[in-house]
Amino acid sequence: MNSAVAPQTGEKPPLKVVLCSPRGFCAGVVRAIDSVERALSMYGPPVYVRHEIVHNRYVVESLKAKGAIFVEELDEIPDTDAPVILSAHGVPRAVPMEARQRNFFTLDATCPLVTKVHREAQIHNKRGHEVVLIGHAGHPEVVGTMGQLPDGAVKLVQTVADVDAFEPKDPNKLAYVTQTTLSLDEVREMVEHLQKRFPAIVGPHKEDICYATTNRQVAVKKVAPNVDAMIVVGATNSSNSQRLREVAEREGCRYSVLMQRATEIDWDKFEGISSLGITAGASAPEVLVEEIIDAFAARYTINVETVQAVEEDMFFPLPRVLRPSEAAE
Known about the structure:
By secondary structure, the chain is of the alpha/beta class. It has three domains: 14-25 and 211-308, 4-hydroxy-3-methylbut-2-enyl diphosphate reductase, catalytic domain (Cobalt-precorrin-4 Transmethylase, domain 1, 3-Layer(aba) Sandwich); 27-111, 3-Layer(aba) Sandwich (Rossmann fold); 113-197, Cobalt-precorrin-4 Transmethylase, domain 1. It has helices at residues 27-43, 57-66, 94-101, 112-126, 140-146, 160-165, 184-197, 211-223, 239-250, 286-297, 324-328; strands at residues 14-21, 47-50, 68-71, 83-86, 105-108, 130-134, 154-157, 174-178, 229-233, 255-259, 275-280, 301-308.
């Protein structure tokens, strides 16, 4: 018997669905996806994309259907005049250098807030500071940031224990930057620990955690303590999505889960709930949120409300060559 259906009457039980706002696409993701779609429109397929343009399978498959070809490394791309787009997460300096050597028509869709971190790391390095990067090993953004500087110039720390174990070359010549998609609370703890151990350490002028990561976490903090379960729509390899699930858990939500599609819903886990929070990572399209709401509406009589944390109006322009005004000249 379906646990979400009342057994005696067959009527669907009530469910309050609380949508977090803001959720879903951020300005950097919109810019990256629009870059691929605009390049396909202007130049026709194929358009090559190094790495997933954003961490969402639905988005990637949609772009593949339109003619985008995704590769992990540039050596998978044949000699071509077709556009080659670098993903929103940023890349090591060696990648655009390789693209220039092969005379690729390269378009950089790196999020401007990631580019900001790259520039900070470069400036600190030029000033003679050893750079500490707070982030997750192997994440494309971390690989890209570390790849801005010579080998050994950046020390990656992932935990407070890493900070404790870190022995700098000169504790008076240290600076730190962070991955843009981390948990605010996690980063705050690690920064405080760094500052306690190394009082002279220099930080960014403005914190590196991006506005979208911050805003989505603030919204989850408002909703999570007041619902029985929380769904974060997003991919498992999406750092900001994983952090949203962790934030919901830390804020006391009994059950928080990350999923990409409605087909992943384990209905047994939602048995007996009367309220459900839903948010989406910065690379998850709203259509997937709607798909999950529809799945619950088939089993429950839902009442949807939205809790808004902040207004978002951030916009990043496309790479210059893709802007309509440039194309018309």
